# Entry
Amino acid sequence: MKPITKFRNQIIQIFGADFVLTDPNDISPYLHEERGLKRSNADIVVRPRSSKDLAILVKLCSKNKIPIVPVGGLTGLVGGAVATGGVIAATDRMSKILSIDQVNKTMTVEAGCILANIQKEAIKHDCFFPLSLGAEGSCRIGGNLATNAGGVGVLRYGNTRDLVLGLEVIMPNGDIWDGLTALRKDNTGYDLKNLLIGSEGTLGIITKAVLKLFPLPKTTVTAFIGLNQLNKVLELYEGVQKRFHESLSAFELISRIGLDMELQHLSGINDPFLQNYPYYTLVELTTSFEDPDLRTGLESLLESFLENQIIINAVFAENTQQKSSLWRIREELPAAQSREGGSIKHDVSVPVSKTVDFITEASKRVKIILPGIRPCPFGHIGDGNIHYNLTQPITISRNEFMSYSSEINRVVHDLVAEMDGSISAEHGIGYLKKSELNHYASPVKIRIMRSIKAALDPDNIMNPGKIF
Ligand SMILES: Cc1cc2nc3c(=O)[nH]c(=O)nc-3n(C[C@H](O)[C@H](O)[C@H](O)COP(=O)(O)OP(=O)(O)OC[C@H]3O[C@@H](n4cnc5c(N)ncnc54)[C@H](O)[C@@H]3O)c2cc1C
# Structure
């Protein structure tokens, strides 16, 4: 009997048959990420119900030196949840909301909770959990923590890292690290929580978390703004930020070419304006109290920007349906780009003040390599995070276009490095960006990260082949 078959039988004996999936139809959904870059060929897929069971399983994996890959909602964009042999540990049966503390303003959850369910539960208690991203209906909080997800609320609330007080984690030797504290102050040695957040499942499996809750926004103002020139975006951003400070919760960039692709390929998308503008921003202000002046305040600021030709047009969402329609324009850009043909994608960040220079210069450089290439930059420009996606020229095939990927990645990422930016702002490294990390990170950083990995996971069983 093959050792892996023996191992499967052993875990069925310990945990029962429903712990391990055997029907290929049941296994299939756990083998590929939404982006569909690469399919897992795991030997075993398990669905534990508790931290205790998962800890016993990890101990067995450690003893037998069998790799184990934690899986959340499989919405990751860098191949982080793809397994090559070994065990996939799906967290979808560990999805309970355990408690809410109204005074401490915290919610304790299991790692398999879907993000949207956490948001809804917070609202039921007149609270707000601000992590929000396009995949929120299917990504799970364990995956959000493991990738330190960003999303559309970073400007006001920070990344996932900023929204967490405590964690419970199964370490690669099967130990359970109980760091599930609900403390806002705790300086007792190294900050293990922040080491594990963003470690993409390579240092341990997150099983529970204590999340911070915030006051529910009582007033929201959403505006979609047309601009004639990209270089006006930062003037607009600075003006809105100066006037509204922490009430500015989202400032997103959309380019006309992206909106055109949506209008062509997707149903139910409407152009908010009668004329075309080369760039748009989606701006959202929120306050945790009723503020009747918020909307009029933004209107009068935008009027002055109209007079000074910083912006050319603006519409406001009059109700939640209109707000969703405006946000849909932002959220569906990647889907529309995929339908337009090959897309070479970059998730980069530079200081906010350099975003416009980055987009302008990157577009110049990629057009030298491939005239006809169509830059479709969009994203969280208020965080300095641009999804610098490039759509294929109409004159060549998808395959020919994709063969330029390495050359184009090098040019774009070199520019990011010149501007002291990051080659992965929010999606992580996974297996997809390993070589880029190796190319751009300092040898000292790589050495420190490798030492940490070797100290915590000497047999390299925890999500091997990712990050390094
Ligand atoms: C339409 C769309 C929009 C998106 N928008 C954004 C965005 O705005 N901002 C952003 O940051 N990302 C975005 N993403 C990427 C993705 O949604 C995030 O990376 C998300 O946090 C992944 O969560 P998941 O549960 O799907 O994780 P998975 O894809 O299942 O896993 C991701 C990584 O985390 C590890 N992991 C999963 N669960 C655990 C656990 N319990 N313990 C330890 N490791 C674990 C996996 O091994 C893998 O390395 C988007 C994706 C899509 C498809």
